[in-house]
Amino acid sequence: xxxxxxxxxxxxxxxxxxxxxxxxxxxxxxxxxxxxHVLSGEEEDSPMxxxxxxxxxxxxxxxxxxxxxxxxxxxxxxxxxLEKLQKFTAEANQTGINTEFRQIPGSPGRTICHLAWSWQAxxxxxxxxxRSRLGxxxxxxxxxxxxxxxxxxxxxxxxYIAEKS
Length: 165
Known about the structure:
By secondary structure, the protein is of the alpha/beta class. The chain has 6 helices and 5 strands, in the order βαβαβαβααβα. It has helices at 14-29, 61-94, 108-119, 133-139, 142-149, 160-164, and strands at 4-9, 32-39, 99-105, 123-128, 153-158. Residues 132-139 have low confidence and may be disordered.
């Protein structure tokens, strides 16, 4: 039924649950996996985005230090997420599932949907932390966006531990 499964991952603990579910489905369907992490300042565990005025041409010495510090944090975040993708890809490939990965900067929901369309995915597996409706309204929800804009079926994996907290 599903031959191409896009697995949308972030840097949170729910990624392992999302990966495990997607790998199980891939085994059942003999499907290919595409693991995706979207580099975004919107992600909960990413470095805080730089304030808009940081682009001003007249930085003080303190501002340059702030930018350098942020760049180091961003590079660490990017490499840690890339290592996670590589680890999950190797694990899936060892089980005989053809798996590749991509790490792309952008808006998470839009990037997931665009890659699903261009890769011609049959299914997107994405996590859902179970935020309250107010939390979703204020912070947005990647899974909600994907559910409404995806070009294919979507499976949301809930993190019941986070939901109960």
